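I am still getting used to backbone structure tokens and would like to learn alongside you. Label the sequence line and the structure token line clearly, so we can match residues to local backbone shapes. Would you write everything just below, so we can both look at the same thing?
***
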Amino acid sequence: MAGPLRYDRHAIRRMKWRKISEQEVETVLGHPDRLEQTERGRINAFRQIGARYLKVTYKEYPNGLLIISAVDKSD
């Protein structure tokens, strides 16, 4: 991970609704199982954490990462 994390309002809402903690987001970003580039210059990071398969969408900026969304794909 490069620099501090900032959370978009959308990401904060999604995390709250899906009960995804900031610590889980940091785990996904720090040790992803898989990374996927998107057409809009964003990156999807995937990681299995226990019974959950999380996807965190973020964008890299020179001063850190902007977390755009977090989803539990195991549902």
User: Anything to note?
Assistant: The first helix runs from residue 9 to 18.
